[in-house]
Every structure is written in C-alpha cells, then in structure tokens.
Amino acid sequence: MAISRRRVLGFGGGLAALAVAGCGSNSGRPAGGGGDKPALQQWYHQYGEAGTQQAVERYAKAYPDATVTIQWSPGDYEKKAATALLTDQGPDVFEYPNGPTIDMIKGKQVVELTDLLGDAKSDFNSALLERMSYDGKLYGIPQVIDMQLLVYRKSLLSAAGVQPPRTVDELLAAAKKLTNDKVKGLFVGNDGGVGVLGGPALWSAGVDYLTKDNQFGFDDPAAFESLRKLRELWTSKVLLLGAPTDWSDPAAFTQGLTAMQFTGLWTLPVIEKALPGDYGVLPWPKLNATTGAPSVPVGAFGACVNARSKNVDAAKKFAQWLWVERTEDQLDFAQSYGFHVPARKSLSEKAEKLKTGPAADAVKLLNENGHPQNPMLWSPKASSAYSDALNRIIRSGADPATEIKTVKSVTEAELKRITG
C-alpha cells in the first residue's frame, strides 16, 4: 500500500518511515529562475493519493514571483530532509511531520515564520500552531490535519448486544464478545498497538508525554494501569494479528476480519463505499469512569523554510503565498486527493465531505478530543525508548513501572541536552 499523509501519525513522528515504490522526482537544485526570478526548490514526501504530485506542481507553477521546482521524495523522507539541511544542497521550502524538530530549531537550521500568518493566525488550528512553535515563535505552517480514530461495525456490535465502548474496560469486554472463529474483536496494527497506541494510552490515563513545564509526564500509576490494559488486550486473544495490511489501511475492517479497528480519517471514503451506513467512529476511550479522557491523535505536516537557503526571503514569501494566502489551493490539497481536515477553521467549514455522517462525527471528535501526537520537546530518542518499552510491555509482558522508569531516564537526559 502506498504511504500517504498518514505517515505524519506514525509512532513518534520522527522514526524512519517505510520505503514506497516509484518516483517522479526532480532531483538537484534548479540552475536558475526565469529572468530575474529567484529559483526555489520545494520538497515533499511521496504521498500515496493519486493526483497529489500533479497538484503541488500545479500550485508551484502558478506562483508568479519565483521559479519553483518540486522534489518528490520516496523512501525515508525525514532522514533525507534532516541530512540535506546540513548541506548547501537542501531545499528552500520543505514539509516535515508536525513541523521541524527541536534540534532543527535549536541548531538554527530553519527560520522563524511567525510574521507570515498575519490576521490569518486565529483561523489556524491553535493546537497545531502551538506544536510547531518554540519559545513563542512559529517555525512551521500547518498544511493539512490528519487524525486517528476507532471505527466499528454497527451491525456486528448490535448482533452481539454490545454498545460502543466508552472506557478501556468496556473496549476489552466488547472485543471479547465480538471475537469468534471468523472475526476478531479489534485491530490496532499487526504489532498489537505498539506503533499507534503510545499517546492514546497516556491520555486515556489522564497524563501526557511531558507536563506543561516540560518534565517527564507519565511515571504514574494510572499510566502503568493503562499500559497493562494494552497487554491484556494482547493476551486475551481478541486482537487481529498478521493482517494482510496494517492499521493505516481499512482492508481488515472492510473485509470483515475485525469488528473494530484503530485507523485514520483517510480511510472513511473506502469504508463508506464498502460498508455504507454500517460503521461509526469513536475516540480511543478513557481508562475508566473516573480516570482520564477519550482522545484522538492529531498530526500535520508543516511547511518550513531552510535557514541555509540562498533566497530565504523569497522562500518565506512563497510559503506565505501557498499556505496562508491561497485558500482555494489549501482546500483542494486537503479534499481532492484523499480525505483530510484543512488546517484552517474557515476552510473546514467549506469542506463538503466533512459535513455529514461519520466524517462529521470525526471532526467533532477532533475538536473535542484532539491531541497533537507528541510535544515539541519529545525527541526521536525519547520516542524510540518509549516504543521499545511498549513493545516489551505489550508483547512480552514486561512490568510497565520498570519500563517507564527507563524511558524517564532517557527522556530526562534528552530534555537536559535540549534545554541545557
């Protein structure tokens, strides 16, 4: 399956991505602009939705004040982009998951973009602007919003006498009732949720990756209990494992292999076509009646400007033109080649596909229960440590309290490095 904008919601937002086949890129920096126009290079990862590459090339061609060349990058885009920023051959404008990393900002590899939003600032999703900011300064412009959610088959739940779950215990009980010799109760990825449930497990317990004052956030008994519940899902034999495609594809759900699946908003058009009217959407539930809150992870690629660009001012002007001024292109990018929420409130209100049915319910979940998938100061090294801990807890039965203390040690060292 082709990788799409959903990559922004892979675990941690900074781990290596899967390679994808095919390439339609223009490599290398353009020799020069037309006439007196500056030459700019803009980088994107390779989107899976048909027509996306042609769309961004069309946007670039329409820009009157520079000659913009698009590089369409397959494979481990994040590593390519991070490496290119260390050289003089990097892009002028580039997208990055949830905006640039704290190391890019602290290393002065990207420039501040706060002044580009102007009066439009209040129209952008505030949580994503905060996620792409450091010390009150903005370093990325949100392009489009993706989110994860739980989908369920209405007919299967009704036949089993199961109500849509509101707590993790209810989810476990529902998954048990819905599991039989043909259907599993729940699919959260072929790894048992290691890749996608790290954040929801914390928010479910009423904690977060980091506290408001940027201290380690989940050395807490409620977090340990929440992680034990993920282990219980694994040992209860209610999870679909070894599915032909992973959590980001709806095939397991549409083919009847699972009654519930944790997946993404982008899958709803396929689900609607396969199961019209027979599905609903939910957040990941809160831990229990008195602890935590339901949640949906939210992510966005952010447009960034390379500080080593030979035309920083021209690059900023282009980023402003495309991602602030060109609202029709922004709506087109969000709606015409997949199924995503525009990063701006006024455009979300114009998105016809999001106004009815489960899609409208999903947008409501985003507004009420959305969490940026991780904080700015949550580094890739901390993310890897947490991922390793989740793997040991869920798949091997390791003690959550012991594992989280190890993650805490790694995270505190990283926070000291970043802020010291």
TrEMBL record:
Q: Does the keyword Nucleotidyltransferase apply?
A: no
Q: State if Lyase is listed as a keyword.
A: no
Might you report a single GO cellular component term?
Answer: ATP-binding cassette (ABC) transporter complex, substrate-binding subunit-containing
One Pfam match: SBP_bac_1
Which key words are in the record?
Signal, Sugar transport, Transport
Could you state a single Gene Ontology molecular function term?
Answer: maltose binding
Q: Which domain of life is it from?
A: Bacteria
GO biological processes: maltodextrin transmembrane transport; maltose transport
The family assignment reads: Belongs to the bacterial solute-binding protein 1 family.
The protein's name: Multiple sugar transport system substrate-binding protein
